[in-house]
Design goal:
By secondary structure, this protein is α+β, with helices and mostly antiparallel strands. The protein is built from 12 helices and 27 strands. α6 crosses α7 and α6 crosses α8.
Length: 650
């Protein structure tokens, strides 16, 4: 079996290795510097394994419910606080070896915190954060615990509970992480264990039933739920209701003889009164496009969307939405995409939608620069939400749909009036037929699973819209009001993407969530014959453009034969590479052939005349495959036809 070791040979980039294990990279003078993005990528990719490790190391005396929540909390707090840049990126090694510095760092933090959680509380000393019940995550009214195993799992759990924390950690590192004793010693030393040898000796007293550590008995990501003490909970709820009623009465007395909340729902008290502000808050002055305006207008964007929904005539709802927009109260949850102002409307806005969506009343408004979504529960205004997204300069391709709501892992859209049909397709399964998406007469789609809310990448749904002019466009939910348009091809002339364009790289879209992304382009810039004769590798660059201009992201990825997904070789932010202004790119990786030999693979765009790897003669052309050593530190550059130097993506 050959393996691909993805190493960024850029002087300022880092990537994650494919294997989840890491041991020798925990300590030592040669360890790599880890940046926060690298650690986050390792945490997300190996989250179930890290939580299982924390759950097994935590003291059993905490109880299964608290062990589950604490394990998740420790992993979620394991990211580094600062950001540093790495000069080189280490290689991927085989199973049981130090490979991914991001994973090694996160695992060390998780292990250290789990061991600290088992320390006894001391007088005259502040407790460590891991010794206290986790603030987050919290589940109210339920107790969570892993699925029950058999007699063997129960017996192993009892034996592990009798071990000290370091010994339990040593046993888990041996069995779950498959580390040798030397690597276990280094991992325990890095986690702050004073006597690793004693811990290993104590762990030797438990039978090596390592396969059981992978069982559902010890999986805190696959849980069962049961209610808490119902009688005690009922008593607490009664006490809380009495306290809330008392607070409500006091608030009413303190608010008299003022106007109170009145018809404005969750809006804060007015701070000013002037003609312009009052016009912006008057539902009667909202503008509404006619249903056929888009057919005659010289521009096709949000300005020609008609007002739709069964509540467009609900003046009270519209008044509340405008009032909250102008002055959101403390109870309103306000969110805005990066670079989007969250201020009051400059004047009368345009109404796009008002209606009931799932368990909420939703109002969509447009002020020429932003789309604004106001949502309130059907049974009141407590818990209202206000969301902003930039849409200035939108075209027909960018304004095909707006998110109406997300719930239970699903998303629901309002589609443009020029959309003739909608469908859902899985980018990871391009050969599968698209699933037709039911829409109401007002253009509201049925809900479907959103990749923005998924915890893994087993599928990646995209919205396919067929428009009146025959165009078929793909977009995907990245956690914002407007879905990101998907395109493919050379950056100077991108086309509407097909599912096959994103089959191996769709999971990389997760890196662009909640960044204010307008569109993402996938460009296959090179193909390369592999030196072991096993086929051809494809090099792709995916670039995410934002509505605000700044904050673009570019990822260079390589896809080898048989790989389920592309692997990131280099990345950059706020770089013109892979874009219309600079349609060129260069990236490289260390790669292990099926023969066991190591190579450096490098590829640039077609305008690259030669590629140079440090310590080797230049290679003519835009691709190169040269012998290398495992873990070798390399520098990569290229020359264009006009003798201009091109560096790796960074």
């Amino acid at each position: 079996m050959r393996s691909l070791v993805l190493l960024n040979v850029s002087s300022s980039q880092s990537t994650k290795a494919a294997a989840p294990t890491g041991g020798a990279g925990d300590t030592g003078p040669g360890r790599s510097v880890v940046d926060v993005e690298q650690a986050e990528a390792a945490l997300v990719e190996h989250y179930p394994r890290l939580v299982r490790l924390a759950y097994l190391v935590l003291p059993p005396g905490l109880g299964r419910n608290r062990r589950v929540l604490t394990a998740h909390a420790l992993v979620q707090r394991a990211l580094p606080r600062g950001r540093t840049q790495t000069a080189v990126v280490p290689d991927q090694r085989g199973p049981g070896r130090g490979a991914d510095p991001g994973y090694a760092y996160v695992r060390r933090q998780v292990l250290r915190a789990a061991l600290e959680a088992g320390l006894p509380l001391r007088r005259r000393a502040w407790p460590k954060r891991s010794q206290l019940p986790p603030l987050l995550p919290q589940v109210w009214g339920l107790r969570l615990f892993p699925r029950s195993g058999g007699a063997d799992e129960l017996a192993l759990d009892q034996r592990l509970s009798a071990l000290s924390g370091p010994a339990r950690a040593a046993y888990v590192l041996r069995g779950l992480e498959r580390l040798g004793d030397d690597e276990v010693r280094r991992a325990l030393d890095a986690a702050g264990v004073a006597d690793a040898d004693t811990a290993l000796t104590e762990a030797d007293g438990v039978e090596a039933l390592y396969a059981l550590l992978e069982s559902p008995e010890f999986d805190p990501c696959s849980l069962q739920a049961r209610p808490t003490d119902l009688m005690r909970r009922r008593q607490h709820l009664r006490a809380a209701a009495v306290a809330a009623a008392a607070a409500l009465v006091c608030g009413a007395l303190l608010g008299m003889p003022g106007d109170g909340w009145g018809p404005d729902g969750a809006a804060a008290p007015p701070y000013a009164k002037n003609p312009a502000a009052e016009a912006a808050l008057d539902p009667a002055k909202l503008t509404k496009a006619t249903p056929t305006a888009w057919q005659r207008s010289p521009r096709t964007d949000f300005t020609v969307w008609p007002a739709r929904g069964e509540l467009v005539g609900d003046t009270a709802l519209l008044r509340r939405a405008l009032a909250v927009w102008a002055r959101p109260g403390k109870s309103v949850r306000v969110s805005a995409t990066p670079g989007t102002a969250a201020g009051a409307p400059p004047g009368p806005a345009q109404l796009l939608f008002a209606g009931e969506v799932d368990a909420a009343r939703v109002v969509l408004l447009h002020d020429g620069l932003r789309v604004v979504r106001y949502a309130e529960p059907k049974d009141g205004t407590s818990g209202a939400a206000l969301d902003f997204a930039r849409v200035d300069g939108a075209t027909a391709a960018d304004s095909g749909a707006v998110v109406l709501g997300r719930s239970d892992g699903n998303v629901r859209y309002l589609t443009a009036p020029w959309v003739r049909s909608a469908a859902v397709l899985d980018l990871l399964k391009p050969s599968a037929a698209a699933t037709r998406l039911r829409r109401g007469a007002d253009g509201v789609t049925a809900p479907f699973a959103s990749p923005a809310l998924a915890g893994d990448c087993r599928s990646w749904n995209a919205l396919q819209l067929r428009e009146a002019d025959g165009a078929t466009r793909l977009s995907t939910d990245l956690g914002e009001l407007t879905p990101a348009r998907l395109t493919a091809g050379r950056p100077t002339a991108p086309r509407d993407a097909r599912a096959a364009d994103w089959e191996r790289t769709a999971c990389s879209l997760a890196a662009a969530r909640s960044h204010g992304v307008r569109s993402v382009n996938a460009w296959q810039y090179a193909r390369q014959d592999l030196p072991d004769g096993s086929g051809r590798a494809r090099w792709l660059c995916t670039r995410a453009e934002t509505w605000r201009g700044a904050g673009s992201q570019a990822l260079a990825q390589v896809v080898t034969p048989g790989a389920a997904a592309g692997a990131v070789a280099a990345k950059a932010e706020n770089s013109p590479a892979c874009g219309e202004r600079e349609p060129r790119v260069l990236a490289g990786v260390l790669w292990k052939a099926r023969t066991g030999s190591w190579y450096v693979l490098a590829a640039g765009s077609e305008d690259v005349a030669s590629v140079r790897v440090s310590g080797r003669e230049p290679v003519t052309g835009h691709v190169a495959a040269l012998p290398a050593k495992q873990g070798e530190r390399l520098q990569l550059t290229a020359r264009l036809a006009d003798d201009t130097e091109l560096t790796v993506l960074h």
